Amino acid sequence: MPKTQNITPPHWVLRFFRWFCNPDFVEDLEGDLFERFEKRVNEKSLKAAKWRFIIDVLKLFRPSLMKSLKIQNFNNTTMINNYYKVAWRHIVKEKFYSFINISGLAVGMASCIFIAFYVLKELSYDQYHENLDRTYRILQGAHAGAERDIPPTPENFRFWGNAPVGPALKEELPEVEYFCRFTPGHSKLIKANDELYNEKNVVYGDSTVFKVFSWNLIAGNPDKVLTEPNSIVLTETLAKKYFGTTDVLGKTVILEQERECVVTGVMEDVPNNSQFIFDGIISMATFYDIRPGIFDNWGYVDFYNYITLKEGTSVESIKPKLQPLGEKYTSDWEHANFYLDIEPLEGSYLHSVAARQAGKTGSVTNLIIFSIIGLFILIIACINFINLSTARSLERAKEIGIRKVVGARQYSLINQFLSEFILLALFAGVIAICIVTVAAPYLYELTGVQISISTFLNPLFLGVFIIGILTIGLLAGSYPAFLLSKFQPAKVLKGNFKTGSSGVVLRKGLVTFQFILTIGLIIGTSTVYNQLQYLQNHDLGFTKDQTLILEFGFDGEVSRNIEAIKNEFTNLPSINSVCASRAVPGGYHPNAGTLIEDQNGEMVPHSPAIYEIDPDFVPFYGIKLLAGRAFSYDYYSDSTEALMINMAAARQWGYTDPEEVVGKKFSQWGREGKIIGVLDDFNYQSLHNEVAPLSLRYEPFSMAMFSLKVNTDDLYSTIQNLENKWKELIPHRPFSYYFLDDSFDQQYKADNQFAELFTAFAMLAIIIALLGLFGLTTYTTSQRIKEIGIRKVLGASVGSIVLLLSKDLSKLLIVAFIIAAPLAWFAMTKWLEGFAYQASIGIGIYIIAAISISIIAFGTMSWQSMKAALQNPTNSLKNE
After folding, report:
1. C-alpha atoms less than 13 angstroms from C-alpha of 873 in its C-beta half-sphere
2. DSSP readout, 186-225?
3. What is the DSSP string of 428-445?
């Protein structure tokens, strides 16, 4: 393939290769590199080929292929060896300061390395799929009433959709190559090897799963494993859990006590950098056998839909066809309009704003914040490195003077100091890798980022690491190297030397910048902590403490005897009350197309969330009734023609007074009747969102779980008694439970993770900044040691000297606070926008930040100042 101006490898990489490679090998190796590059451009893409070209060149960067080092004379070799000997001796001689300098930089580099791995992991979600660039997710939305002709905004679309849309797109759009549907991982009872398992993450999936997605099937034919009814594919983990081995083809499991499914395939566990994760797939044909009616129902939503476009197809060419297709199949909808859209699978983990996602989602804002923190930490560490190194290097002024007297040139002195700083940076880098390796298990538990020794042996990492060490060493060492190499020997050897005012301005500027970053991190940490405390203490509108949840998965036998089972549980010691429902706060719930009579007597459609509950649910959870009454066992019609709603739903239908909606007619899922009560809004979802409209109906045969209010004084005995009673009453289902508060708080797992990481890295940055301040005070006091001696001789007190040395620091702190406070406020206000309920960024947070940074700064400064002020003045004046 002829090379063109556009289709060429990166020029800078090519120049680097020609610079280090032995001339005897350049022509042959360069030809091979170009040949591989052109082949990858044809097979993959120009971007992928360029990345591989960089990696190939880095792999060739080894001694056997490098140019021979031409030593012009013995003196140069001796000088270079001397540089490193002197550097090593200075590091060993000044053990304490070398430790502070290296450890501070090492911690900064370790933090930066981990944050880089964390960000790369978040960016890697779903990137392993071969057809990623052609795979899209189907989004669905509906508007009703006055809004029916207004297309939904991106936030109003849902990834959760109906079953027939995938086949319709495949049939009517020639650009679509495959479609694939999944169901959410609802609770399923599975029996294997005579053991019962309550699986929450086994899904139904189409036979095209392994055509659309690149999940590795280690046993079975990918084209056939999910084509027939009653077939199931297990992940390795699930296969070993059921049978102790992955050699399980042909074995059977029992689904919901009645359907025998044959294991037709075993796949590797879904990688943890996947948004949609499951433990097993039952063929969609099985689900069709169970509930065929929903596969033609465009109004029933319980599926995640994906499509893969044919090669060369532009997504823009099919977007205009989506809405007409949706309208074709929903033209008989009287009260709402149906809307379709698609979004790429690539990047959906971080960028999708659609509701009802298939799994957890990431946050671009959080990644930006962590990237900025990582950069802050590295900058603070480098500033610390420069300040402390400069302060200690001034003690070597006489060494430099002697070297100059015996003929050393400025460039050789610069090389000496730069080599010393690069050596320090290399030590810090090695320690940083050790820190990350030791902390890897904790980091994995917190973030899921896997780091091992092999991670650091990756050629790309090694290349970036080496370049980073050289860059940090050169940048950090340049100022002290050029500063010290300019000293005049005569003045230096007399002990009469001072640095210029430009150096003072630079150092003060660096420390001020450190303070700005540190103050910003303190304000940020306080805001994050304050917000999480606010979430934990916010009145949810219901009680979730001491609530135990027992799931029975829509079991028909349990449903028929539900009141008797509840009474048996209530008779147990330590069980105060029991209710049954299909959903509980913080858990999965469906939505229901609902018509309610408005103030003009018209039936207006909306699609609120729905809770199917028994009459004990409302009093059990302590939800406040605003108008009407709650469900009651005394009214038989409550289970056939009654509906309750929350106040958010009343407002959605145009009512501001809850009393006005009571008695209005409704129609929902085949049931018609009247609204009997209005509940106060309670946060049945995360506080990231405002309370959404909710409908509640008494549906005795649609329950899936019990809620039990337990006495936690002797929790172990309570659980044991419950398990024994469960085995007596419901022996055909496994006993599984969880506490509602733990489950509800899982919604804030990502927020807690963010808070822990933010706090940890903020504390590291503050500690490193302390070392930088230590460097400044060391330098300042060493420069003014004779002045301090003279002041003491003239009668100055220790306090007045400490105050004198601290005066400049006060100015730097004030400037830093004025700059940092508004910047931190702006950044954290943006972060808080992700919560519907926000704690205010009050003046107290800024007072805490000001007091904290003052204590930290003046504490560090005072220690050095006191040390200088208490020194015997004769020691500092003896040379005068």
Report:
1. 15
2. --EEEEETTEEEEESSEEEE-TTHHHHS-PPEEES-TTTT
3. HHHHHHHHHHHHHHHHHH
Query: What six digits make up the tokens of 310?
Result: 């044919």
Q: How many residues does the chain have?
A: 880
H-helix or E-strand spanning residue 18: helix 11-20
Give me the pLDDT at residue 878, please. 58
**Residue 243 · residue 193 · CB < 8 Å:** yes
Can you say how many angstroms the Cα of residue 526 is from the centroid of all Cα atoms in its chain?
20
- How far apart are alpha carbons 220 and 235 in whole angstroms? 12
Number of neighbouring beta carbons within 10 Å of residue 823: 14
Instruction: Specify the pLDDT at position 180.
Output: 98
Side chain identity at residue 190, one-letter code: I
Low-confidence residues in the chain, pLDDT < 50: 1-5, 70-75, 880
Residue 242 near residue 234 (C-beta atoms within 8 A): yes
Give the tokens for residue 212. Answer: 């659309």
Contact 137, 342 (CB under 8 A): yes
Helices H, strands E: what count in the chain? 30, 25
Torsion, Cα of 728, 729, 734, 738 (10° steps): -110
Phi-psi region at 126: left, alpha or beta (left = phi > 0; alpha = psi -120 to 50): left
The bridge status of strand 195-199 relative to strand 188-192 is antiparallel
3-state SS, residue 248: coil
794: which residues sit within 8 A by CB, 6+ positions away? Answer: none
Nearest to 209 by CA among 267, 291, 293: 267
pTM recorded for the entire structure? 0.80
Tell me the two tokens of residue 598.
Answer: 């408005």
What one-letter code names the amino acid at 683?
N
Task: Give the integer Cα–Cα distance in Å for 754 and 367.
Answer: 10
Residues 643/612, Cβ–Cβ less than 8 Å: no
Which alpha helices (H) appear in 653-738, and where do they start and end? 658-661, 715-729
Percent above pLDDT 90 for the chain: 47
H-helix segments, 448-555:
453-456, 459-485, 489-493, 501-537
Residue 319 tokens read as 């977007």
Neighbouring-strand partners of residue 181? 305
pLDDT at 171: 95
For 194-236, what is each residue's pLDDT tens digit? 999 999 899 999 999 999 999 999 999 999 999 999 999 999 9
Residue linked to tokens 């082949």: 39
| pLDDT for residue 493 | 59
Helix (H, G, I), strand (E, B) or coil at 42: helix
Element (H, E) at 327: helix 315-329
Question: What average pLDDT does the chain have?
Answer: 86
Predicted local distance difference test score (pLDDT) of residue 498 = 55
